[in-house]
Every structure is written in structure tokens, then in C-alpha cells.
Amino acid sequence: MTAATATQDTLVLEGIAKRFGSVSALRGASIAARTGEITAIVGDNGAGKSTLIKCLTGVHRPDEGEITVDGVPVDFHSPEDSRKAGIEAVYQDLALADDLAVWQNLFLNREKTRGFGPLRLLDRRGMRREADAMVRRLAVNVPPVRSRVRRLSGGQRQAVAICRAAGFGSRIVIMDEPTAALGHRETQRAEELIASLRDHGLAVLLISHDFAQVQRLAQRVYVMRGGRVTARLRREDINTERLVALVTGAEEDE
Amino acid sequence: MSKPTTTAGGGAAAGAAARPDAEPRAIDELRGRIKDPGFWAEWTVIPAFIVLIVVFGLISDVFLTGDNIESVLAASAVLIVLAIGQTFAVATAGIDLSMGSVLTLSGVVLGQLYSDGRSIWLAMLAALLVGAAVGFINGFVIAKARISDFIVTLGSLSIAAGLALVISDGKPVEVINKTMLDLSTNSVGPLRWSVIVALLVAVGAHVLLFQTRFGTHLLATGGNSEGSRAVGVRTQRMKIAAYTISGAMAGLAAILLVARIGSAEPAAATSLLLNAVAAVVLGGVSLFGGRGTIAGPVIGAVLLTALVNGLTLAGVSEAYQPIAVGTVVVASAVLMRYQR
């Protein structure tokens, strides 16, 4: 079965290739992600995960291959295009402005305004109220929306970034190493949050080096090596030893 | 596609119930802020101002008279405008070192046009536009060519200073004009028109920075340029806009300065640049970008002017004044270290 034949797949990437000069970062990678599921991508550094994600978020344009969202082919020229198609990403560094409040970060580049033409002013109260509702609905680890991001713990900051990615009607959320910088307890909370996104009916794409985490969360796993997807596992086949073998190339699946 | 709250499940709801009220009332928030050492590090300018008023009020009989307050405010107008412009550059995590010589260039352009018989309004407009144009070029090179703000504005400092000398042939130009004279001498209550202009600019800048999308994006660019770009903020435009504003403010400051001294001087206003940066630092604006106020730098500018005035009244030699200004600025910067 190729990924494209499964009709319920929200997001399908088919044969994506990307070269930077003489370096082939992606050599025809295909993955699919489904609504209400967590799909993990694992692989060593340089396997092409980041490049694949950047093709998906509109940072890079693939040289070959096709991306479809709900069966409709899309062509992203900018991160804006990708966002309009309902794709949001939580970056490793979280992309938060530390000295702005939680609500300002949530609404960054989506600010609500009142008034006309050049006199449009921010609807600060409205945004605070909505931000509060949004974090309460989604987050397990709720930060107060008025506080500056700088004051928050690592886990709360992450919750803000995840809420921003999931809170505006997006359908596909990409998480790049979401728990790499977190302690044990905060990792646990972040995982609960990721699971709650899945339960809210989002398609979650998880990039992680933590195989135990992948095993806990993912419904399917794609293993990448040398710019290709070299293995694809269903939930029941996922175990840490196998993933290590596949990632290092000790075992080849396809 | 994402399902609404009904499916949120017991887990999230239980989590919400376990938390204390997440929306503190305004009074609690104020109380919390006053207790927070970070707040006082950001607002050092207020206790510093109070100390200054008390000290010079005791030393000098003249310091707190209405006439002296009026003249201190009038003397602050140029610096207030410069500090506001500098705040925009600093808020994007940059700095505009060219402001002093852009002010000189704009002033010289104003003076030349007026002495060539053009209307004073045209001359003032030209001063503003020259400032904005230099600022735009600064911002464009910084944002698009990705060259350090320090280098770019240091370069334009030199270029603008040179242009001012070329245009004026190194000679000051008198600008004797009723409109300009009114601007610096007529007043409404204790406020001269130049001060009113500066305060209106401050109100406008405050609204722009804190009540518009533009302002939020500007602060976000300064706080986390890469991250803001990732969510679609046009960070290059924000930087260009910030330097265009600081340039335009240097142009406006030039108008106020020419009105005040009655002539356009070709010599670079280095001390004004330093004092503008000082007012910004004193005003609690983070030199790392992304954080600041307009009120802080405005009060900082008045404070520095009042400090010089107080020292003069106290009979301290003019040579000591820059030393005092520098000390105050470094001390406040040290205090700011605790804001994080």
C-alpha cells in the first residue's frame, strides 16, 4: 500500500526530493499523517527530517514530489501559504518572544484589531479573553495569559507554543523535538498535551529522538535514512530495539 | 476540522479545575508588579527622578520655580524626540548611532532651503524627509544586507556629518522666522509649543508601539527575530520601519533645535546622540531588544536635562556635567542587569 491510497490521510507527501547544490537532502521521501493520530518521524542527524519539515512548512520548496492536504495538491511558496492550508509547527526553540505576554505570543501575526483603515487598534481585551479560553481548552499545564513568557517554566513555554500551533483551527501540527529541553515531569506533561491534540482531532507529526516517547505516543512511525523513508511501522510493531536498528541502518525494512 | 470543546475530555477539564484563578484582578496585578524587583529595575528612572528633584530642590532656590521648570522642559524637547526615535531602533535589538549627525544634516538642509528663500514649511518638511530617507537607507542595509546596525549607522553617521559640511560649506546659517520663533517661545500654560510637539509625538509613539499590530510585530522582531519570522512576521520590514522612524525623529529634532537656537549649525551633535542613547537606557528599554516603553525614555530625557540644569544652578563647572550624565547612565544600566 502506498501512502496515497489511504483516503483518510489528511496529509500526504509523495516522493519529495530536495537538493542543495550538489547535496541531495531528500531523495524521494513519502509519508502520510492522519487526523486523530500521532505520526512520528525518526532518523539520525542528516537523515532529512528537518528538510522534509521545512518543505511542509513552506520554508523550502521541494524539487520533486507532491504534497496533498485532504487530497488537494498544495504548493507552498512561503510559511504563510503553509499556515493557510492548516499546517502549524512547534519549533525546537519554540519561536516565542520572551518579553511579550502569553496572549501576545498566542496572537502573534494574528492580532485582532478594531477600527478603520490606518487607525486600527489592537483589541487587547478580546485577545486576552480568547487566549485564556484557548489555553484552558488545550493545555494541561496552563500559564496565566498575562504573564511575560520570560517568567514561565520550560514546560509552560512549550504549552504556549503548542497552543499557538493548535489553537487557530489548524489541522496538522508538526512538533520538532518537543521535549528535548524538558525535565522528566515537564516531558510527561508535554506528552499529555500532545495526546490531547490528537484527541481534539488534529493530525500530529512528531519528530523525536526519544524512541521510548515514540513508542508511548505514535500510531505510526516513519524511519528516515539518507533522505529516504527506509521503514514504516504500525503501532504494534514499534519497539525501541527495532527503531535503533532501523535508524542506524543495522536493519532495513523496505 | 478540529473538534470543539465538547470533546475536550475529562483530563483537560480536571486540569483546569485544579488551577487557581488565572485572571488576576487589576489591583492584584499592580500589587504584584510593585513587589517585583524587575519592575523597579525597569522603572529606575522614577526614583532617580525623585531623588534628583529633592536634592537640587534643596541645593538651589531656583530649581523648582515655575520659570526654571518651563525652561528645563523646553530644553528637553529635542532630546525627548531623539530618545523616542532611538527607542524604536533599540526595541528591534539595534541602535541608531547616526541620529546626531542626521539631525545636523536635516538642520542644515532646513537652513539652506530657508535662506534660499523657500517657505519655512517646505524647509521643515525637507528636514523631516531627509531624516526619514537616511533612516530608511540605514534600515534597508541593516535588514536586507544583514550588516550589523552598529557598523551601518556608524557609517551613516560619518556620511551625514560630511554631507552637512558640504551643503553648508561649514558655516552656520541663521534662521530668523516667526513660525520657528513661536515654536520655541510661545507656550500654553507652562508648556512651550516645542514641548507640546514632543509630547504629542510621545503619545503617538506609545499608541503605535502598544496599541497596533505594527508595534507588537516590532517588539516581537526585537525579542526573537527568527521566531517571529517563523510565524510570518515580516521582520525585515519591521527593522526598516524602525530605522525610518528614528531617522524621521532626528529630522523633527532638527526642526526643534533650529527653532531653539535660531540657526542651523554644521557641527555634528555628538553629545545629543549620546544623551539620547542614555535616556533610552535610563528609561528601562532593553538594549537586547523586544522590551521597552515610551514613557521611560521620555522621563529619562527630562531627567538628563534637569540634571545638567541642576548642576549649572548649583554652580558646578560645565566640564563636570558629561561626567555626571555618564555616571547616572552606567549606574542605571547596572541596575537594569537585575531586570531579567
Find the CATH topology of the largest domain in chain A. Answer: Rossmann fold
What is the count of DSSP helices of chain B, taking H or I runs of 4+ residues? Answer: 16
How big is the Rg of chain A?
Answer: 19 Å
Write down the secondary-structure element order of chain B: HHHHHHHHEHEEHHHHEHHH
Find the biggest chain interface: A-B, 50 and 37 residues
Helical content band of chain A: 25-40%
Biggest β-sheet strands, sense, barrel of chain A: 6 strands, mixed
Strand content of chain A: 25-35%
CATH classification, class level of the largest domain in chain A: Alpha Beta
Q: Secondary-structure element sequence of chain A?
A: EEEHEEHEHEEHHEHEHEEH
Average pLDDT level of chain B: 88
Helix content of chain B: over 70%
Which shape of chain A, going by the Cα principal axes? globular
Distance between the termini of chain B: 41 Å
Number of helices of chain A: 8
Radius of gyration of chain B: 22 Å
The backbone outline of chain B, from C-alpha atoms, is: globular
> Which homologous superfamily in CATH is the superfamily of the largest domain in chain A?
P-loop containing nucleotide triphosphate hydrolases
What's the number of structural domains of chain B? 1
Low-confidence stretches of chain B: 1-23
Task: Describe the model.
The complex is a heterodimer of chains A (254) and B (340). By secondary structure, chain A is an alpha/beta fold. Chain A has two domains: 1-86 and 171-254, 3-Layer(aba) Sandwich (Rossmann fold); 100-170, no CATH class. Chain A is 31% helix and 28% strand. Chain A has helices at residues 49-56, 79-84, 102-106, 124-138, 154-166, 184-199, 211-217, 240-248; strands at 9-20, 23-34, 38-43, 64-69, 72-74, 87-90, 113-114, 121-122, 172-176, 203-207, 220-225, 228-234. In chain A, the strands form three sheets. A six-stranded mixed β-sheet of chain A has the order 6-9-10-3-11-12, with helices on both faces. In chain A, helix 5 (154-166) packs parallel to helix 6 (184-199). In chain B, 72% of the residues lie in helices and 2% in strands. The longest helix of chain B has 27 residues, at 235-261. Classes of the chains: A alpha/beta (254), B mainly alpha (340). At the A-B interface, helix 2, strand 8, helix 4 and helix 6 of A face helix 1, helix 11 and helix 12 of B.
